[in-house]
Records
---
Amino acid sequence: MEQSIQYFNSEEAAQILNVNVSSIKRWTEDGTLECVKTAGGHRKFTMQHLAKFLEEHKTKTSRANLFPIESDQDLEINTRILKADFEFLIEYVLEQSRLCNRDRVLRVFNGLYLSQHPLHEIYDCLVTPVLHKNGELWEQGEISVIEEHFSTQVIICCIIRLQGTIRMPVEKIGTAFCLVMSQELHDIAIKMVDHVLELKGYKTFFSGQMTLSRKIERAFEIFKPDRIYISSTIVSDVNLAQAEFDKICYIAAAHNARVFVGGRGFDEIDFSHPAVEKRLNNFEEVYLS
Ligand code: B12
């Protein structure tokens, strides 16, 4: 089967960067813009190549077309991305995710990232409000549960695909565990915490939904994390959640690991353990932690 990596040809790269094809040629020849060459000698570009160029050469591309323009609506979305008009983009992504138009949602995420918006800002100002609004629409009976789930899954899929555009640091500055409690299905927030930490330079371990705290000591001994991030959204059994949390804190303290907590579940869990450094409220705080 043919491998399907998304490549742009020189014309498309020129359209996205809003320059002439001759500039693309020149920049690839002098090494300013990286590309791969096909057996036939044609230049091909990945999102990562374009992202790296945009990051390193801001002045050359101040008018980049971050959203491939195929219609008048695309032109408007491109402008909204350039203006970082989150109010508009929230509604657009909400609609497109419900229609399961993954390519359209991903283009917005990619566009914002390519125009140098930090990942934590995309998560705080776009992804979180979209997920919240989606939940509200379901609560108000305006969409069915399956539509709400369709939309959520598109968002999950696109935040993961966005990672493909991002160049992760090679040097690691530490090791972080990203965990949820054993009764927790909500793991999107902690997935995003994991992404922000990875981009900061941490080697991250993400355990996904319903992480069991049983035998967690073993993971501490093998991987020696220096930071533990725990997310809690819903607490169905307070005593159980508290016992699990206390146990993780106890093990973290024994391994000199600092604990950071987040999510509204911590309204019900007593997190005043000496191992706990801070309760964090958003992804910018994760980035700064
Ligand atoms: C998607 C979703 C689901 C998905 C989760 C999929 C997944 N893989 O995560 C599914 C369908 C599985 C689900 C299940 C349920 N859900 Co639900 N779900 C949602 C929804 C729509 C979005 C959640 C989300 O990801 N938000 C995006 C994140 C980024 O936002 P956030 O959680 O508010 O987190 C913010 C901060 O708290 C912070 N944060 C959170 N964690 C962390 C961690 C760290 C370290 C840091 C720094 C920060 C941080 O960062 C965010 C940015 O501000 C919300 C609606 C809403 N308003 O959130 C309901 C919601 C959370 N769910 C709810 C409920 C009731 C349930 C169910 C019980 C439904 C049921 N009857 O079965 C089950 C729970 C089962 C369980 N045991 O966990 C309620 C919770 C009400 C409450 N008591 O608080 C909500 C609020 C909907 C509602 N209004 O009724 N859900």
---
Amino acid sequence: MKKLKLVMIGNGMAGVRTLEELLKLSDELYDITVFGAEPHANYNRILLSPVLAGEQTFEDIVLNDLNWYQGHGIKLLLNRKVVQIDRIKRRVIAEDGTEAEYDRLLIATGSTPFILPIPGNTLHGVIGYRDIADTRLMIDTARTHRHAVVIGGGLLGLEAANGLMLRGMHVTVVHNGEWLLERQLDNVSGRMLQTALEARGLHFRLREQTRALHDAGNGRVGSVEFSNGDLIPADLVVMAAGIRPATELAEKSGLPCHRGILVNDTMQTYDPRVYAIGECASHRGTAYGLVAPLFEQAKVCANHLARLGFATYKGSVTATKLKVTGIDLFSAGDFMGGEGTETITLSDPISGIYKKLVIKDDVLVGACLYGDTVDGGEYFQQIRENLDIAAIRDRLMFGRLQPNDDMQHHLREAS
Ligand SMILES: Cc1cc2nc3c(=O)[nH]c(=O)nc-3n(C[C@H](O)[C@H](O)[C@H](O)COP(=O)(O)OP(=O)(O)OC[C@H]3O[C@@H](n4cnc5c(N)ncnc54)[C@H](O)[C@@H]3O)c2cc1C
């Protein structure tokens, strides 16, 4: 049987995972061609933060080396950014003119960092934090310059700040919110985190808007100006103020997009020959920015590419962690709570532990843990599975220790 042609745009985590899943189901259906804008084989983007912090090397975080592609007969075109999808002729065209025809197309272009539209944002030394090139640039800058400013106090911003500090820079995190990690923590745990990070040497400017970035006089950024007129020195500015799904290419080809390329429950776009997966895809109104949901999507997409056609993706509940060694936090679901919810809270400021569980109609709907996260996985499972917790409600805060005997033991230990 003549093989079909599968072309994938974007050689990142979600796309390559889809290929892995597909190859498990069928390695004879397709001739596969992959276009990657980066000059590298697939690596674990999540682990860029440990690379920045000096805890791992790039070689440690490669997921699929060149031999993997070769071994599976995949044609890998690196450093080749696709600039056009011709859906009539069913082919894609890269910046350098390389073309490839497809029977099925998989768009897995990920996201791009949101760069604040402020004066000075194109100066040398102003970057986003997305790939190994950004990471290397930060490492190099830390060797030669002193002051770094990270805009954004979310997961990415804090991991960038921590890494730059460990590389010897004086780092200030600028955040326009009331507390850090507002999407992962409530105000109590957010402030505990800030205290812990300040003790390590990070500096914070909260409730602050950045008005402009100023030239040091040589085309490189030299300072950051806030809306109240304050100036602080900055040789490097890392924008970590959010990401935008990379949909430009799909939009140009006429595929419907709204905060992501619109896909159905099989990850298929409005063109039945074209699938989209990962951070670039919008499923039921959500474009996910974490890998766990993307890997679930990958399984479903592969199932359809392999012509099995029975899997469906219904959306995901997500959980997050911060990858700063020595700081444990976990949150999942509706951890803020609201109307119709009840919360159980445990707070021990002396040992730096805070736990909040949010319950609605006898179901755990959210959890926020700081300082002790061992039970995070357990809570996450309960949230995902909508388990009725009425019978274990009084013991819920003690996580894994469900049987009464263990509970007695735990209470004895605690007293
Ligand atoms: C520093 C950092 C830390 C993170 N930490 C976590 C974490 O702890 N937990 C977590 O769950 N998630 C984390 N994430 C997010 C996670 O990495 C992403 O959710 C995941 O990588 C998304 O996969 P993707 O395949 O959609 O996009 P990507 O992995 O970004 O892959 C997209 C690829 O497509 C390429 N591309 C784009 N346009 C084109 C084009 N036109 N032609 C060819 N190629 C193109 C891009 O260059 C890129 O290589 C982190 C991200 C970063 C940057």
---
Amino acid sequence: MKYLSFAILVTFLIYSQACKDDDSDCMELIWYQDADSDGLGNPAVSLSDCEQPQGYVSNNSDTDDSGIISASRTPESAFDDFNDEAVVVSFDGNEITIESNGLPNHTSPYWDSSSDMYIDPVVAVSGQMSPGTIRSGSYSLTVPAAPVKASTPSSTGLGAIGIAVTGVPIFNDEEGPNIALSAQVASGFDYAGGHMGPTGYHYHLESSDVSENTLLSHNDHELVGILQDGFLIYGRKCSSTNDYPTDLDASGGHTSSTHHSGDDQFYHYHIINEFYLDNRILLFGVDLQGTPNAFAR
Ligand SMILES: [Zn+2]
Ligand SMILES: [Zn+2]
């Protein structure tokens, strides 16, 4: 009996050694939990695995994995770019509130003809312009001062998904509930990429390169606005490289510095450098990587 036990043990040892040989090209590494998705792992929570598990990173230098301190704060100087006649920005510790009356500081054929901001259409096709004239509205958005990426992206809905530097709400690629923009509707957009809707004047597209356009981002690295998850959106180029970024995620986002942040890196979006309808470029028609905050009207 004793001899049999020994034989079983020897067999087991040979078997386990064989197993180990089979797995010899798998090298286990230690992975640290990254609960706040900032790329830094929590040294207190680790496991070993041959492949990187979801939610884990090889870095172990996160001193606070809850997401508040390790996340990058949105550079406050970015808000100096907002139209201060329409937009009031309040900083309250961990939150930023952006309130706007929605009135742009640029000319448009959508202003009432009595307004000194009214111009005849230069980009919009008169017969395709949507009815109504620009009027005062009320948009209020409160976002975290240090927004973080959510575990899953969120789709955007109809209505305001952000506020542009001019104070005008940013819309996505929908013109009605689950109705995509059409080339016909877009032909009524002004040079700012905006038009009227039931809730007021709003932008869908990047602005056009016309001489009347003196302040909106067109094919450059200027700030476009802030989206409802609290991340800033810039033009098609990034000031960190002075070129079109090549490391964007599916939402047009990446982590880098901008001209507002010095050397500090933070996550932000760019207008994706792709044509949407003919030669028009959408401001934002993809998913949000952060958690959307609701607009208070
Ligand atoms: Zn619209
Ligand atoms: Zn960038």
---
Amino acid sequence: MKDRAPAIHDMSASEIEALLREWRQPAYRARQIYRQLYAQLAAAPGEMSDLPAALRERLAQEVRFNELELDRVQTGDGGLTRKALFRVNGGPPVEAVLMIYRDRATVCVSTQSGCAMACRFCATGRMGFRLNLTAGQMVEQVLWAAREARAAPAPGKPLLTNVVYMGMGEPFNNYDRWWASVERLHDPEGFNLGARNFTVSTVGIVPGILRLAREKLPVNLALSLHAPDDELRSQLVPVNRKYPVAEVIEAVREYTDKTSRRVSFEYVLLQGVNDQPARAQALARLLKGTATRPGVRLCHVNLIPWNPVPGEPLKPSERQRVLDFQAALERHRIACTVRVQRGVDIAAACGQLAGGVQ
Ligand code: SF4
């Protein structure tokens, strides 16, 4: 293998074609390889049975496959939740979680190993930042999940239908590579996942929200809010000191103005910290500020019961408190759901991804 061999999942269809031209292979061979990667889900050249043996051999020698090494897979929820731990060059951990439902299958993908944002309630934040993943490494997580979903003995065997960038890391701190992964997976000649089947979650990086508003593909935006006021939000989400609540809400309003797309607000409920009736009222008042026109509110609140992180004294809100919070928002006509948690037993739920480092 050459030192600087290209990584196959970082290459577009035309880059693979250019490489094959260099190798004096016909263009249709490049299309075969691309189809093998993204439609047949081949994980290695050896699985590309429609290619001549010599070409498979050359691919194995001169192009890098599997930049992420699969360390282990844990299963929970009767096999319907699967968490993969990968390693980059045998070192920094990266996790992806596949959740299989009756009618759909969703993968939660990491964009970084670790995270610099240090949100108080999040196990990944405690790891600190390790590295930015490449687009190809994000794509590899999705292809792993698609293979798992295809093989799962689940009712109806759903193929992978949704990709949510809510794993380790802040996607907008690695924007270019994150967006390249969306474009690759959306490509109709390849994996062909609809733009509306992608969701990106940000902790409120304002330039990223504004940039997303200008993108052509209508991917969904989720905003990790967790508190309606600066004082508390800065304690829970330190980047709030740089991008305070009002600026974030203004960016969201600009985003909904431009795109007419609904934004999800993620709100982890912590007992006695951000779950009081007064905070529900404040949140409702704040979200009225996202209205694009009087009466048109393109927002939805996702309440997330907190999943304990070892060593963190915070506690999840009690069930009744969660329901009261939801009812308070609904009285203000804010659409609101309580997220059904998956993978708590294998530390695969929201905020629990720490690559086995606790
Ligand atoms: S919640 Fe998201 S942004 Fe905050 S530390 Fe965890 S991974 Fe990073």
